[in-house]
Amino acid sequence: MSKKHYAVIGHPIGHTMSPFIHKRLFELSGVDAEYTALDIAPESLASEYSETLKKLDGYNITIPHKQNIIKLIDEVDEKAKMYGSVNTVLNSGGKAKGFTTDPDGFIKAIEAAGIQLEGRIMILGCGGVARTMAYEIALRELEFEFAVRRQDVGKAGLLCLDITRKIPGAKVSFGLIDQIIGNVDVLINATPVGMYPNVDDQPIHNCAIGRCKSVFDAIYNPLETVLVKRARANGSVAEGGMSMLVWQAVVSHQHWDGSKYDKADIDRLCLDAAKELAAK
Q: Closest Cα to residue 20, out of 263, 194, 220?
């Protein structure tokens, strides 16, 4: 079987972890493949699609191309249509089909961490990451709430309306992040607070962290944020975002070649990816 060729596209793309993660996944599955990073400016996307991307077996897409790639490819799966975003493309039989793996990566990371999506579920923030997580929770017919900064109240309201419009019956509300009261069963941080280089920051106060049964932080740099550290110190189940980054890559491989992986291998890859990131 001949070597396959894959890539990640974006702009800028200099510090992407995708080549490290995907090369390891190909090694684990025994697939002979090359994976590279391609810096493609927005104005060059259409020409590069014809000249380069069509010749690949598949590729991943990051900012700023996740929406613009849709008008170039032949087909988009139903979940990607709902999100209006594509981050994985499979070229097969002369056609390009697009998928979004971020939502499944989130769910797989939650499950791998042993976090049960039940009870009172709260998402910190209302940006793109929060939106992805919110849709997956709403699709499971679970009630949840956003906790946002005062200046983001209008944005949170619009997001709630969008969710209930696309998923009739969705039970979603929002409140202020500095007014969290009561116990929380699942706290999900979808803000950048605590991300490198501001590693000493945390999105909520210690007293609120102490009332959380489980915590998932979408931040993957550092591997263990202050939020995750303090949650674990309180005896809560807590997981950082590196697992989500790796699991969404796993889902890409499932679309490309149907590969399956052991959880132990993925756990090891998460740790190795964190070391690689720290060395950059």
A: 220
Active site residue 55: no
Q: Which of 66, 97, 108, 213 is catalytic?
A: 66
Domains 4-100+243-279 and 104-240 share a fold: yes
Q: How high is the pLDDT of residue 1?
A: 62
**Alpha-carbon gap, residue 210 to 188, rounded angstroms:** 14
Tokens coding 49: 């699609």
Spell out the domain ranges in the chain: 4-100+243-279, 104-240
pLDDT in tens, 82-135: 899 999 999 999 999 999 999 999 999 999 999 999 999 999 999 989 999 999
Query: What average pLDDT does the chain have?
Result: 96
- Whose tokens are 């499971």? That residue is 140
**Which CATH superfamily hosts domain 104-240?**
NAD(P)-binding Rossmann-like Domain (3.40.50.720)
Rounded to whole angstroms, how far apart are CA atoms 213 and 234? Answer: 9
> Which CATH superfamily groups domain 4-100+243-279?
Leucine Dehydrogenase, chain A, domain 1 (3.40.50.10860)
Rounded CA-CA distance 79/61 in Å is 16
